[in-house]
Structure formats: C-alpha cells, structure tokens
C-alpha cells in the first residue's frame, strides 16, 4: 500500500492518528474538487487544510473540541459562545411534559424541589440565551410538510417574542423557509434566503422556465378583457381626481371610467370590542392620534376618547399599547416640526387655466415656506405623484417659488424649484385624459421601481427588469383585481412595452430634478 510506504508501518501509538488521516484524505478524494478549484496547490496549503480538518473532527475528539460543537442540552453548560443555535424547538416537543408513572405518588402531590423535566428545559433555555454573545439562533418546524399550514413554535419562543415586543419594543427577526429546497426565493439575487445546493438550483431553473412558458401560453390563450377607447372626458378637471388617478391609473380606469368595483362590500360585523388594531383601522387611528398630538392634546385625553368610541383596546393592556404607540408617533410629529417650513397657513382654493385645460381644487398643506405633506405609512407611488402634483400646482400659483416636503414613515422627499412647471403640469393633464379613454401605459407601482433603478443606472434594460419583477409579483399575489383584469390576455413584456418606457423616461426628469433627498 502506498500510504504505508509513505508513512511507515503503524503501531499502537500511531494507528489511530494514521486512521484519521487516511479517513480525511479518502473523504477529500471522494469530492469533486475540480468544480471548486482546478489550479495547482502548494504543499503548505495542503498541510494547513489537513491540520484544520483534523482539529475540527468531532466524534472521538470530545466535548468542546474544534470550531463547532454539537451537543444535547444539559444543565450547567452556561459557557459563553459567539453563537448558540437551538434546533427542534417545536410545539409540544420543548419544553418536555412531566409524565410520571400511574403509581408514582410524587406526580400527584409535587413539592418544591421535586425534579421537573419541564422546569429543567426552561432553565436550560435561559442558560443558552445568557450564553450567546452575538447570535442566538432558534429553529422550529413552522409549516406542515403535508399541507404547508402554519404550526406554532414552542411556548418558550412565544414567550420570548412577547417579551421583546412588550419590554424592548423590538420586532424579532423571522426567516420563514419554504417547504421545498428548490423554491425560487433561495436563488433570487436580492432574497434574504439563500442556498448552495446545485441540484436544487437546477430544479428551480427548470421549474421557473416551465412556469414562465405555461404563464405566457395561458396569457395568450385567455381572451383580452378590454379593447378600444372611451370618449374623451371634459377638460375641466378636479385636482382631487387628478391625484387619485396618478396613485393608480388602472384602478381609476376600471372604477371611475367603467364604473366597475371588483372588491366585495364589507359585511357588517356588528358591535365588537377591538383587541388588536390592524390594516385600515390602525392606519386611520394613527392619523387621528397624530392630528391630536399636533393640536396639543395629552396622551390620557386621546386614549380616553378612543376607548369611549370603541376604537382602541380596553383596559390596562390597551393603555400600555397606547403608551408605546403614542411615543412612536411623537417621534414622527417631531420630524414634522423640524421640517422648517414655518407656520401652517389656511387652505387655498385655486383655479388654473392651462391651455385647453381648467384645473380647480384646494391646497390644504400650505406653510410659510412651502408645503408639508405627511402620511404615516410606507412611501410608495401614491406619495410620489401626490407630492409632485401638489408641488407643480404651487409653483404655478406662486410663479415658481417654494418647496414641497413629503414625510412618510420610512422616507423624506423634498421637491424644490422646477423649470416650466405649467408645461409639465399640462403634460400630466394630457396623461390623465389619455388614461380616462383607455388603460394608461403608466403603471404607478412598476414606474416607481423603474425610477429607483434609473437613479442608479442609465441602462433601460436593468430598470425595465425591476419594473417587470414588480408587476409579476403583483399578479402572482393578486394584490389588485383591476390589474389582473386588465392584464388578461397580455404578457408582461407587452404590458411594460415601449409605451411604458417612453412614459417613464418622460416623467423621470421631473422626479430626478425635483427630489432633493432619497
């Protein structure tokens, strides 16, 4: 054997070491190393790699040997580590239940000091938490392998999450994995999930190509829902309608021009006590609280009124949650006060003659040095076009003077001086009239993705790819029924074609020149 010729005959002292070396070399020879590295390697590199492999071996190496330690949870192992990972924290599996024998009298009348597996597991969980110095990783089966239904975690994880929310106002970091390892999210460029599995990647590619071909075939086989044009509307336009149109042109066309509402009416749920606010109810109440804070009202006065109206959870839990929400919204109000636009002015009614158009409405966010538009929500297409339209109207009224500041929960946008405000506003009015006759080439959400990419790159293909991804995700998740209806019979490339790109390129100078902060 060549190994014996090279290393010599083994004896009792060297047999174990030699066996480990041969095992490591055999494992290395069984791997396809050419896929990773195919250049010559020096002997020093091989020696270093071999030493690291032997040092990191588990099994007979003993506890706390090597760089990674796998062990069961036992008491009194509270040794500090950079990272502590706990696996298998499933509901019902941890902490373990105390199940005694039927004839065990200790289980019937337990006393302080009696051993409890459940208490031991809770103590070990606390020890593991205090031992982690940088990372504390908790893993549990959160989805059913049969029907993908959500499964709750261990009671200890639920208690830890409640503690983070109530005492530290921290939202825990979740990472939910898919049922199959070949899900496309594991191999997307900007996904938080990742995988190095080559076989799963190949399967994901095959499934994605097949799904794309199927979707394109289905889209082509489906009947086109809308064709043709409607009569041109009157050119006397209300400013509120103009803002609503640009927030979502396709929803405007279906609802206002065709008179079709696809959302089912909300059923009356009767009188019920709210235990937790969500969705539009939370958004509406947050807006009222912000207005009350700006008016100088105290926290107790606001929460008492909301509880009396049945719009906020009752009792001590409700007051505690309101205290957290009140402090959160005070930070947003502080941002509003630091905008530096001066004292708020009364609303201004206006009427503008812009060529063949007559635009009328009201500006209600005026201050001494400009406009302050606020919305306690995530910045999106609605905020972009809403603030742009308000800014253009203000410039037309004040002859190019003033600035517009848009504050949202996650972004601050500032619109400053802009050339030819009247001409640009006329162009937006023309887009409005066109969008009332037929579906506009402008898709607001996809256009915002295009604009964001355009700020970083001049390549239209890259920007268009971002917009197409946004449209595909919207159609997959069914976010807007109007969008799905108008897209019927068209491919993504047909919807976001040359007209969409031309529209975005025409609007982009307004966005780029006006947005002072991003």
From TrEMBL:
Coiled-coil boundaries: none
Keyword Cell wall biogenesis/degradation: no
Database matches in InterPro entries: P-loop_NTPase (IPR027417), RecC_C (IPR041500), Restrct_endonuc-II-like (IPR011335)
Domain RecC C-terminal: 235-454
BP GO annotations: DNA recombination; DNA repair
UniProt keyword terms in alphabetical order: ATP-binding, DNA damage, DNA repair, DNA-binding, Exonuclease, Helicase, Hydrolase, Nuclease, Nucleotide-binding
MF term (GO), any: DNA binding
SUPFAM superfamilies: P-loop containing nucleoside triphosphate hydrolases, Restriction endonuclease-like
PANTHER family (UniProt xref): RECBCD ENZYME SUBUNIT RECC
Descriptive protein name: Exodeoxyribonuclease V subunit gamma
């Amino acid at each position: 054997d060549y190994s014996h010729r090279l290393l010599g005959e083994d004896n009792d002292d060297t047999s174990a070491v030699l066996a480990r070396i041969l095992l490591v070399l055999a494992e290395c020879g069984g791997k396809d190393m050419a896929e990773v590295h195919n250049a010559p390697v020096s002997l020093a590199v091989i020696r270093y790699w071999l030493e690291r492999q032997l040092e990191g071996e588990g099994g007979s190496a003993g506890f706390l040997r090597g760089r990674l330690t796998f062990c069961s949870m036992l008491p009194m192992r509270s040794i500090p580590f950079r990272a502590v990972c706990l696996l298998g924290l499933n509901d019902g599996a941890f902490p373990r239940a105390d199940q005694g024998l039927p004839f065990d009298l200790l289980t019937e009348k337990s006393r302080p000091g009696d051993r409890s597996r459940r208490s031991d597991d809770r103590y070990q969980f606390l020890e593991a938490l205090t031992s982690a110095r940088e990372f504390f990783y908790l893993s549990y089966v959160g989805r059913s392998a049969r029907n993908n239904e959500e499964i709750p975690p261990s009671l200890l994880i639920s208690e830890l999450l409640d503690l983070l929310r109530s005492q530290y106002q921290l939202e825990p970091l979740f990472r939910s994995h898919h049922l199959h390892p070949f899900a496309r999210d594991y191999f997307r460029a900007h996904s938080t999930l990742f995988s190095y599995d080559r076989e799963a990647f190949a399967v994901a590619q095959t499934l994605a190509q097949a799904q794309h071909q199927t979707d394109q075939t289905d889209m082509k086989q489906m009947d086109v829902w809308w064709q043709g044009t409607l009569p041109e509307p009157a050119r006397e336009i209300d400013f509120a309608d103009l803002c609503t149109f640009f927030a979502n042109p396709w929803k405007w066309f279906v609802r206002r021009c065709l008179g079709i509402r696809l959302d089912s009416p909300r059923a009356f749920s009767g009188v019920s006590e709210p235990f937790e606010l969500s969705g539009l109810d939370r958004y509406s109440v947050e807006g009222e609280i912000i207005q009350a804070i700006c008016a100088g009202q105290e926290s107790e006065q606001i929460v008492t009124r909301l509880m009396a109206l049945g719009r906020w959870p009752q009792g001590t839990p409700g007051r505690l949650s309101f205290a957290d929400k009140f402090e959160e919204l005070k930070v947003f109000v502080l941002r509003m006060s630091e905008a530096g636009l001066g004292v708020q002015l009364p609303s201004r009614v206006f009427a503008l003659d812009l060529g063949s158009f007559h635009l009328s409405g009201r500006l209600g966010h005026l201050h001494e040095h400009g406009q302050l538009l606020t919305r306690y929500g995530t910045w999106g297409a609605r905020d972009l076009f809403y603030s742009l339209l308000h800014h253009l109207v203000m410039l037309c009224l004040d002859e190019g003077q003033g600035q517009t500041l848009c504050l949202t929960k996650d972004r601050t946008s500032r619109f400053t001086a802009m050339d030819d405000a009247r001409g640009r506003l006329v162009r937006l009015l023309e887009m409005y009239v066109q969008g009332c006759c037929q579906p506009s080439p402008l898709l607001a959400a996809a256009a915002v993705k295009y604009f964001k990419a355009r700020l970083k790159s001049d390549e239209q293909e890259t920007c268009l790819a971002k917009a197409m991804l946004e449209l595909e995700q919207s159609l997959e998740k069914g976010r807007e029924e109007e969008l799905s209806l108008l897209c019927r019979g068209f491919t993504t490339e047909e919807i976001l074609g040359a007209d969409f790109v031309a529209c975005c390129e025409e609007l982009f100078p307004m966005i780029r020149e006006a947005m002072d902060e991003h």
